[in-house]
Amino acid sequence: MAEGARAPGDLPGADRLDRLVGRDHELDLLLGLVQRPDHRLVTVTGPSGVGKTRLAAEALQRLAWVAQVKVPLAAVRDATLMPDAIVASIQDGPGAAGGPAEALWQRYSGDEVVLLLDNVEQIPGAADVVLALLDDYPKATVLATSVRPLSAAGEYALPLRPLPVPDPDAILHDGTHPALTMFLQRASAADATIVPDDDWVAGAAEVCRAVGGLPLAIELAAARSASIPPALMASQLARTGGLGLLRGGAPGAPDRHSSLSATLEWTTQFLSPPAAELFTAMAVFEGPAAPDALSWLVPPGTEALDPLSELVDLHLVEMDVSDPEEPLFWLLPPIRAFAADRLAAEGGTDTALERHDSYVRVRAQTGAGWAPYEVADLLGAFDRARLAGQVDSTLELALLASRGALPPGADAWVASRLEDLLQGPGDDPVLEARALVWSVTHGPATAPDRAAFAAWTQERVQRAISTARASGDPAALLDALELTVRTVMVTLDRDLGLSGIQEGLALAERTGDVGRLARFRMWAGMAAESQGYSDPAEAMLLQAWSAGTHAGDRVAAEYAAMFLHVMAVEQGRPIDAPLPQLTDLLASAWRHNDPFEAATLLSLLAADATRAGDIGSAARYASQMLPIAEDRLRVDPLATARILTTAVRTLVAAGRFEDAARIERSLAELEPVLRGAMSAGGYASYAQAVSDLTDGGHREAVGGEPVRSLLESLRLAEHTLRSLIAQTAPPRPPQVRLSTAPSPAGEASLTPRERDVLVLLARGTSNGDIADRLGISTKTVMHHTVAIYRKLGVRGRAEAAAWAVRAGLAGE
Questions:
Q1: What is the mean pLDDT of residues 594-606?
Q2: What is the CA 141 to chain-centroid distance, rounded?
Q3: What are the beta bridge partners of residue 142?
Q4: What percent of the chain has pLDDT over 90?
Q5: Which of 723, 721, 524, 546 is nearest to 622 (CA)?
């Protein structure tokens, strides 16, 4: 090491880590960049607390043969003061030299030297000082650390991301998880008596995930693990953000590393005003959000995409580009807590919540299905309206939300809240009637047994009908009348169902509601088919399918098509109509969270596969029905029984007679009800399977104890069907992992337009300017950048720019 060069530990915080954890790849990249003669300015970028200084110091330790100057710049805020700080470090104190280049000539006489400029991000105009130094001293190489690139000509940026965290289902004791390794090391250093058992390690992994792998946050959390168990710490981080936990930095550490709050304060000072406003407003979102959702948080007429890109580059916002058409953005729990505190301090919470609630209501009006990540925001808006005493507004929001399918489980959350509202008086009987209908069709099965659930359903249906009649609203009454048909298999009140169909047909025809008329014709056709009147059933179903398709009524069109398929399969009746394929109908059923439609279609597909001799596919279809059966087991055993009949037929076709016989015997008590609950063809198909068992003498030759309950039958069906699937399952395709390193393949996968966007992006051009240059919208630019990130395997703008520089595209 050259005379006068300081040891790497002289930098604040550089000696805080015993060794570099999980940075071997980045260290190799950095050494390769710094040692190339044409790379005279290399900047390690990333959020404060990610370990930029430590990585740079480690790199210089590996370059001990070259003269080194380390310049701490965290206290400098003015570019005019930056040359003096550099000179003082070169001369090891104040001296008579002029500028930095003159000081280098005096000390090193033109020999090679590396300058580490630590923490440059807070100095506007720092790039000009650096470029002047490089011009005047040809043998100098500058290694800088900064939250973001200096945007200087010839700069090579190395983005440093937080450490990888273990997946929730990962094996935790194999030493392959850098974030967890760091936590364990720091915890042991804080308390040598800690003996981490499986639960302790699992809690530590949860903490690492909650803080997003940020090394500083991991160190702060690990230092407190002696007094706070990691599982409790993880719970508090997930629930409240836990900012109070993440404090107490190591002795001698810079102030900005004394707590995560201080670190975030340091980082957010570099945000532009639009990015700062969006950052704090994002705290009102409970989970991930798409750009269209976040655009509601910015003032009207402004774009959210540019500030979003800025927040991603500073690692304040996480981004998921697994769906390139709809990237998702969110805040980690501790960062969200910080943003919420700042939003409250600025007095912006009420405005942000109003914008969030407006977005949720408009989103509900679209009628599109809800993604799982959207449910928390829907419920948040719902609860705020409910707690404010806005009964009708809350009912309206729930009904709007129900127009789009809710993910499994979300129905129960909304229904439990609606129950509270339905206990009190509302001002709008139409909303109340529709809420009653929704509670029956979407509500959770919370009754203690089937009889109690049937009684509750019967009472709720009658209340919905009477409330709708009192409202005088035909549409609300049609909803309630349709409920009489949908609940027949629970109430077993066929007379009420048939009278509901007749009244619904008359009312829909009288009011001219084409879609609802098609729907009641569909129900009438289904009733006729179940009673054996095939010709009129087919005519009504065809009418319902055609009218429902033209009216855009999904239930009428899809259910009519489904029942026509049932007739074609079970009765061998060719249907002269271009019906949608079963697989297309099934995809729609899953998309709209319609378990009845899904179970019926899966039964048909299983029957088709069985007739074709494809037992593996039949078993796959049958196994997909089992969760539906178990979900309705307690309150609607007929649904479970109908599904198990498909399992019996599949197992008979596979020659699994003993297992089929054990399941079939559990259905014996329900056989009289099954005969009425199933279509004639469906029951005949099941009876034939039972006959195959009996004729072959298999029904009595059951190996082992016969199952006594439907739940036991479900477990047996699941086990046997899985074994059939395993015997016929195709091999899995190999998984392909994206590399973050530049490669010809990655570049070749870019479209010409994506390449144009990448080149401009690498030059530091904003999304708005890129849109103007290329004549496209800023939203299209965002879609292109997301596709670029996905194809190149990078996380954000800074990494994409670095990729482009290393691939030689930045100069195009």
A1: 87
A2: 43
A3: 41, 115
A4: 24
A5: 721
Please work out, in degrees rounded to the nearest 5, the angle formed at the alpha carbon of residue 103 by the alpha carbons of 102 and 107: 120
Contacts of 139 (CB under 8 A, 6+ apart): 108, 110, 111, 112, 113
Structure tokens at 604: 């048909």
Return the C-alpha torsion angle 696, 700, 704, 706, nearest 10.
Answer: 120
CA distance 715 to 641: 13
**157 Cβ neighbours under 8 A, 6+ residues apart:** 42, 43, 44, 45, 149, 798, 801, 802, 805
Distance of CA 192 to the CA centre of its chain: 39
- At 368-382, the pLDDT tens digits run 888 888 888 988 988
182 vs 241 pLDDT, higher one? 182
Mean pLDDT for 211-227 is 88
Q: Report the candidate in 443, 365, 362 with the shortest Cα–Cα distance to residue 403.
A: 365
* Averaged pLDDT of the chain: 82
Could you give the CA distance from residue 808 to residue 812 in angstroms, rounded to a whole number? 8
Average pLDDT over residues 583-595: 84
Indicate left, alpha or beta for 228 from its phi (over 0: left) and psi (-120 to 50: alpha): beta
Q: What is the CA radius of gyration of the chain?
A: 33
Q: Which of 206, 218, 210, 216 is nearest to 179 (CA)?
A: 218
Nearest to 517 by CA among 487, 482, 484: 482
Closest CA to 152 of 184, 123, 187: 123
Question: Cβ contacts of residue 132 below 8 Å, gap of 6+?
Answer: 99, 101
How far is Cα 662 from Cα 437, in angstroms, rounded to an integer? 38
Is the Cα torsion angle 435, 437, 441, 443 positive or negative in sign? positive
CA dist 596 and 588 (Å) reads 12
Cα–Cα nearest to 41, from 141, 110, 183: 141
> Cβ(785)–Cβ(767) under 8 Å?
yes
pTM of the model: 0.67
Give dist(CA 266, CA 420) in Å, integer: 46
